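Escalation from tier 1.

The customer reports that the assembly of four entities below gives different structure tokens on two consecutive runs. Tier 1 could not reproduce it. I'm attaching the input and our single run for tier 2 to review.
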Amino acid sequence: MVTSDLGAFAPKYQRVANDLRRRIRQGEWQPGDRLPAETALAEHYDLSVPTMRQAVAVLRAEGAVESRHGVGTFVKEERRLQRRSRDRYGRARKDSRLLTAHLEHTILSAGRGPLPAHIAAVLDDAEPGDEVVIRRRLLTDPKTGTPEEVGASYVPLGIAAETFLEEPTVVPKAMFLCVEELAGKRYAQARDHWIARLPTPEETQVLGLPTGAPVMHVIHVARAEDGSVLEVSESVWPADRIMLIDEYPVEPEAAMPEAPSEI
Amino acid sequence: MVTSDLGAFAPKYQRVANDLRRRIRQGEWQPGDRLPAETALAEHYDLSVPTMRQAVAVLRAEGAVESRHGVGTFVKEERRLQRRSRDRYGRARKDSRLLTAHLEHTILSAGRGPLPAHIAAVLDDAEPGDEVVIRRRLLTDPKTGTPEEVGASYVPLGIAAETFLEEPTVVPKAMFLCVEELAGKRYAQARDHWIARLPTPEETQVLGLPTGAPVMHVIHVARAEDGSVLEVSESVWPADRIMLIDEYPVEPEAAMPEAPSEI
DNA sequence: CAGTGGTCTAGACCACGCG
DNA sequence: GCGTGGTCTAGACCACTGC
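Tier 1 run:
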């Protein structure tokens, strides 16, 4: 395979961003170290300051560095915490990589409100604007104070109306156990919708994201055996801090080998 | 709940980006429509052209608009194709939302090479640099010519060496069936690792991504009953075109309700 | 106070696609 | 040729932090 001349004619800000990325990976600056000031870097690379800033902005959006206004630009530690999609149901709680137990849970708001359109879009049996109980939460690393996750739960009025789920306090036990008790039904099926995107302005603010940094967004729909929705829960994480894990058995007898596929 | 004054003191380029986003959502410009030229927009919003460009760049990274050099900036259709994480094993092939069957498969390269570090990082039983058979693929929408997915498969030498998997041609049937035949073992367990991030320069080029647009990256590890790796497959999609779906049964008896959790 | 990054301007020049 | 977006420059001014 021929190595392409990728980048030979790339714009300056990209070539410089690539070079900075390489120097960081090679350990020229360690996590926590401050990079030279943008004016100094601009001089070193023989660039104007705005173009140099554009190069640094690339690394900032990637999560490789973090800029603190008035202080400097620092190399970030590359730590992508692993999280299982099904941790919410209590399995694998003993796994040391589990996150949420270490995080501080805050309820941003709780009460009735209209079902957002992006939630209704993944449900066949609900309309945007339907009144539901909405609980918005924020999870923060108590050690660093860093916001790690922002999310919300949507519970049908028939289950949550006039209950403690309308109160803005952390629930006494795992959320799904509360809902099971109130609904009188057991969780039976789940469907997750995983999206990567850029954050909304609100998310940028709440999560303290740098401009251009993407987020991972999961909408989790839980239903009872009879198919009725018990709870919809959505979570948004800064993309550079998370890796979502999904383990499952393969059932080869279900295979239908008719179509060639490289996947 | 009090509506925050978010954006009242936000930078101009953000306020203008928000306004453009709103105008697009309200249908002032339909998908396919061309936005006014940046100079015209700059005049309308009483901004300098560079700042106006910065605002447009936000929408471009979000996937809301697409700029064609020398032509103009156009509103993109919001279509997020749904794809099941486990389609590769032939289930749900009848689902009309399944993607890969409609796509054109191209083998970019096939042959032996070292296991990349980011793949070894999710395996307990392999080291970066281990020699494996690597098949790199590109999936393209034949109607539009748009690249929709770039990816690779990594198969242990013991299975794929001296076989047709080292040839850069599309395999005659589903990949996992080929590997099962060659290995003499059945696929039994799978583990997926889902990451959202900004693309590498190579991915930006191959997928034709605008600057700042994120990608979704999945590493799929398939093992036999005895725990040996049969195949590792990774896929990268432009984030704005995909929603990954994961369905699974909930087993409430596995719950361990000891820890309060809002998730 | 000095140094840093964040925003914004004004304008030059180029590359691209189309008529 | 002309209008478009893509890149780059030079510099101003501000906001934030830490000494």
